[in-house]
Design goal:
mainly alpha, two-stranded antiparallel ribbon, two-stranded antiparallel sheet, 60% helix, 5% strand, globular
């Protein structure tokens, strides 16, 4: 890394730290049904009208089961709505290229992808999906899936921060029992308020800034141009500036163009590149401050943030190092010259791996973007991850396999990291020989089982689907690379979809019935089979009575807790995925070092 790389990295980290507190404070207002914001005069009437049209009372709180059912029902309706649009887009307006409707398996994959906040794309956006499908079918989910994720995180934090209390059930002195609050918020209130007060306003401002950087926004038909060689070139256009802000802010990642953020229309300048990277991590970072305020322990929120940042910085440095490693080649002629002069050899160096990267971003910004987008569950890319070096490509792969808890997606990063917090506190309790406690709540067998179930579901989906693809004709047929890199491509695909990320080692041909179906199932598993035990965990914690801290209570702030949390994340990740990584990118790395890949 050069001095300019360090300067850019310091600027990025400084800006991210700077916006964390104010965004966290704003999230406190947004996620409170009675919270007041400076946008109330404009948005409050629209919010009230929305509740009236939905027929819901935003003040009526839900238990964890009711909250989860509302989220699942809303998601089901959304996926059917989008599936219908994609299948029928040839009959709908704003289709200047007269694109046909999508096949049933591709429409299923795409609808599920955007509904689950994955935005995996088995298609080329500009050549497959109409303007109407992009703006109505897909962008709708970019807002609602992000809002739902933030709502789930808020519900879990409420479960941690709230407490039950004893109440008398009769006249007898022994008739005291614990009455549970048993509520974790209102799904409809969270969904509406996050969309109206947080996502939409930021995206409007961001879109204006991106247009100033040269990002296009139009409804024109594609332009046909003649190249210098006389061939015809089609230049895709469309409403991009309205799509890209929520693509990154909501950690969605699905690009308008097939090349995503590597395309100059989607990401024209280094400034737009910086804005997109900050947008990806902004809400996830702000939610850690929201956590601290809600549990009345701000030091705990910063400790969780610090653990995330240590893992993130480590990932960036490893990825950037292996992408910038100098390669040395020697050219030796077969024979000497006619004059009898001795043979000569020429030595030259290539400063890093520029394959698949945009020159306007360079090695470091490509590595930083790759780490940012996979630390969060975003999936937007400004470089081809398939062209990264084996270890450079393993970094984004491993970050997804950790559950994308390193800052993470909007909401998903915080509730995923809180699962690891529960396990870290449990481990600490075992070490001191006391019942584990987390912020006054006793962590018992039920909470630990729910936390482990969440992580095991992720692991089973990633490794199970990858193993199935490895031994199936349909799985092997999609590979463009043999050997360990082919395994990495399949492992990356199912890690990305289960982790609701959406980026890919694009050497895999995934637009086939079997891949579209299994990848779609992986997305559903990664979103909903993980959310259900997390919501059950929220309900269980909300029902618990708080106990005062004692001499054996493990503090959940400070360096010791941060180190324990980092160790828990890495240990579980290593135990689950190290064998698969050893057969993929690690083997490929040693083959490359030995010259077998050249």
């Amino acid at each position: 890394m050069h001095a300019t790389d360090w300067l850019q990295f310091a600027l990025f980290l400084g800006l991210l730290a700077l916006i964390t507190k104010p965004l966290g404070l704003y999230l406190m207002q947004v996620l409170d049904p009675n919270g007041r914001t400076w946008l109330d005069p404009v948005i409050k009437p629209v919010e009230r009208l929305t509740y009236k049209l939905l027929g819901v009372d935003p003040q009526r709180e839900h238990g964890w089961k009711q909250y989860t059912f509302a989220m699942l029902a809303f998601s089901l309706v959304g996926v059917v709505f989008t599936y219908a649009i994609l299948r029928l887009q040839h009959l709908l307006p704003w289709n200047p290229q007269e694109l046909p409707g999508l096949s049933h398996h591709l429409a299923f994959n795409t609808a599920v992808s955007f509904m689950t906040n994955t935005n995996w794309q088995s298609y080329g956006g500009e050549s497959t999906v109409s303007y109407f499908s992009q703006m109505v079918g897909l962008t709708y989910h970019n807002f609602t899936s992000a809002a739902a994720g933030i709502g789930i995180a808020a519900a879990l934090v409420r479960g941690i921060s709230r407490t039950s209390f004893p109440t008398r059930s009769g006249n007898d002195e022994t008739s005291w029992k614990t009455r549970s609050t048993a509520t974790v918020g209102n799904f409809w209130s969270d969904l509406v308020r996050v969309t109206y007060y947080l996502l939409v306003p930021i995206c409007v401002v961001s879109a204006i800034i991106l247009v100033s950087q040269g990002m296009i926004q139009n409804f024109d038909p594609y332009t046909k141009a003649k190249t210098l060689e006389g061939a015809e070139q089609i230049i895709a256009q469309g409403p991009m500036a309205s799509q890209i802000p929520i693509k990154v802010l909501g950690t969605n990642g699905g690009g308008f163009m097939n090349a995503n953020a590597a395309h100059p229309f989607e990401n024209p300048t280094p400034i737009s590149n910086l804005i997109q990277m900050l947008s990806i991590l902004a809400i996830g970072s702000g939610l850690t401050y929201y956590l601290g305020r809600m549990v009345k322990n701000q030091a705990h929120g910063w400790a969780v943030w610090a653990a995330m940042m240590v893992l993130f910085v480590g990932g960036v440095l490893v990825c950037a190092h292996y992408e910038a490693v100098e390669r040395v080649f020697q050219l030796v002629p077969e024979t000497a010259t006619q004059a009898g002069e001795p043979g000569w050899k020429t030595r030259f160096t290539l400063d890093g791996n520029m394959e698949g990267k945009e020159v306007r971003f360079g090695l470091f910004n490509s590595s930083l973007f790759a780490t940012v987008t996979t630390a969060a569950s975003c999936g937007a890319v400004n470089a081809m991850h398939d062209s990264f070096t084996p270890i450079g490509g393993m970094v984004p792969l491993f970050l997804m396999q950790l559950g994308e808890v390193v800052i993470g997606g909007v909401g998903a990063g915080l509730y995923g990291m809180l699962v690891f917090v529960i396990l870290a506190v449990f481990i600490a309790g075992l070490m001191v020989g006391r019942t584990p406690e987390y912020l006054g709540k006793k962590i018992q067998a039920k909470e630990v089982k729910l936390a482990m179930l969440t992580l095991l579901i992720l692991t089973l989906s990633v490794l199970g689907f990858t193993a199935w693809a490895c031994v199936s004709d349909w799985g092997v047929a999609g590979l463009n690379n043999a050997g360990p890199h082919g395994l990495s491509e399949m492992l990356y695909a199912y890690s990305s979809t289960t982790g609701n990320n959406g980026s890919a080692f694009a050497g895999l041909t995934a637009n086939t019935p079997w891949y579209n179906t299994t990848l779609g199932l992986a997305m559903l598993i990664g979103r909903f089979l993980m959310i259900v035990p997390i919501m059950a965990l929220a309900g269980s914690l909300a029902a618990k009575q708080a106990v005062p801290a004692g001499p054996g209570t493990f503090p959940v702030n400070g360096a010791t807790f941060t180190i324990l949390l980092i160790g828990t994340v890495l240990l579980i990740g290593a135990l689950n995925y190290l064998p698969a990584l050893a057969l993929g990118p690690i083997v490929e790395h040693f083959l490359m070092k030995g010259g077998s890949l050249f």
